[in-house]
Amino acid sequence: MILITFFLAGLLLGSFANVCIIRLPKDEDIFLSRSKCFSCRKNIPWFNNIPVFSYIHLKGRSDCCDKKISLQYPIVEIFMGCLLLLTGAIFSLPQAITISLVFFVVTLIIVIDYYHRIIFDVMNYILIISGVSISLIYPELNPENISFKNSILTGLIGFGLFFSLKTLFKKIKGIDALGMGDVYLIAGLGVWLGFEKFLYILSISSIIGIFYYLIVDKKSENFEIPYGSALGISFIILILSEKLIQQVITLL
Ligand SMILES: [Zn+2]
Q: Which of 127, 144, 151, 202 falls 20 to 30 Å from 183 in CA-CA distance?
């Protein structure tokens, strides 16, 4: 029962994530205004706005003007649904709720950086402040259960490392290889991961970055690897993998 609740909560959170992903880069309100059709701007009735179900029911086209609805909607919803289902299955209830909220912010960062190459400061600040405060007040809420010292030092090391890299690239090559958003993001993820896993996130995110570089068409003029997305995906993998593998082994 609790797993179904986590899955449904994930679908809803994914639906809200879509609202944020579409509206935040346009500087639009995310709470008050109603959902409008992306094409003809008509209000969408609630029964056409149910996560995943509506997309399938409408066969991927808008009801009002028969335009193709972006696959981003169901993908983000199902992704969040499965993500929360997993966290509900492998972590204690307080940990699962805490890390689900962190995953929500990280998912926003992944998708927005992927489409726009922007990481909003406010999301990085939320990660940094929440991670450090939880390590101080109630470290068991973080599945990594790291000390305050570990949390704050890892954040500072991440910030220092990426800031130096950014400055070096600028000095030697004259390019902005890393944005300030990436610098704050590694600090925000570091304060949740702790030092040990911080070393892993550097390698996993680089591998994802290289794969992206190899797969994606680089002909477009301002080709840029969405490194924030790579960091976010690596973070989710690192938080889940250890517990997940342990659970699979005990099942075998
Ligand atoms: Zn329409």
A: 144
